[in-house]
C-alpha cells in the first residue's frame, strides 16, 4: 500500500504544479494589464513562437 500512496502523492504534486501559473503567465498578464491588450498578445505570441 505504501507504493500506491507514493504514486498518488507524486500525481497530486504534478497536478498542483500544472495548475500554478508560471513566470510566463505573470509576464503576459503584466504586459496586458500595464501596457495594453495588444502588448499582452504580442508577448504571448512571442513565447509561443519560441517553443
Automatic annotation (TrEMBL):
<protein>
    <submittedName>
        <fullName>Threonine transporter</fullName>
    </submittedName>
</protein>
Amino acid at each position: 500500500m505504501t507504493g500506491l500512496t507514493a504514486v498518488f502523492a507524486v500525481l497530486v504534486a504534478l497536478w498542483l504544479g500544472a495548475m500554478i501559473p508560471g513566470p510566463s503567465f505573470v509576464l503576459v498578464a503584466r504586459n496586458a494589464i500595464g501596457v495594453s491588450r495588444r502588448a499582452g498578445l504580442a508577448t504571448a505570441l512571442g513565447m509561443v513562437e519560441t517553443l
